Amino acid sequence: MKKIVALVFVLSFVVWISGQNRPLRRPIMEKVDLPDPESKIFVEGEFRYIEGNGVPGHDHGEFPNRGNPHTILPQRYKWRVPAEPKNAEEPTELGRNPFGVALNGIPFDPGTAEYWQHDPSSGWRYEALSGHLNLGVDDSNAHVQPTGAYHYHGLPFGLILERGKADQMTMVGYAADGFPVYANYGYNDRKDPKSGFRKMTSSWEVKTGMRPSGANSPGDRYDGRFVADYEYVEGYGDLDECNGRFGPTPEYPEGIYHYYITEQFPFVPRMYKGTPDRSFIRRGGGRPPRR
Q1: Are 107 and 153 in contact (CB under 8 A)?
Q2: What is the pLDDT of residue 31?
Q3: Mean pLDDT of 233-246
Q4: In the chain, where the domains are located
Q5: b/e map 73-84, b = 16+ CB within 10 Å
Q6: Is the Cβ–Cβ distance between 124 and 228 less than 8 Å?
């Protein structure tokens, strides 16, 4: 009898310890009534300004949800980009900042806060749209940050449909360096606007082989779950390492460098062809500054 009582005590203790080591669930935020969406774009001096309250005008997912515990809250955005963008001498990596802003004022922000073993110093950052994480993204590849900021990680299908050009070359925003951003359709011949449209493909692919072994690496085979699992292969797809190309567009018939949001990694570009404006630089790793 004493052995049975002791065994029950040990099992109860193990269950209790397991509960203590279980990661805490993030609190679920309550939904709020959102104001009407607001956005405007205007040029003043050398800059183009994109202002908005961060509320999408298109249908969006239910937030909070099982993969995303946050609710959409109105923001106060005033983004600024060069009105006459120029190529930089070398491409600039995105870092932990938003890449650009959609025409509705909502940011394109492809990075995640999730790292292998919760350690940013490891360098192994999870890719949001890899299929290995449930981040609660909706049909527009968007979800919500802890600040309540709704943002896009990939093709903003709601915005594209709103503009009524799902299978054509559709401008959806501006990058932080001022160059325009398009959805995934471009001209068949990048020099010929009369050549018809097709989906653009990126030139990034998953690396072959195994990740480095060691205490600071997840090991195992490259499978696309981490940003570092991908590499640029020149000529592999239609686009360069910044996920863009030069040529005419409906809005810029004389030709301009422009980016694409693709169905494959990097989805939203992770490098700039030009120089990003400081209004997109996060302060202390948090939200972008309000101007």
Answers
A1: no
A2: 56
A3: 98
A4: 2-280
A5: bbbebebbbbee
A6: yes
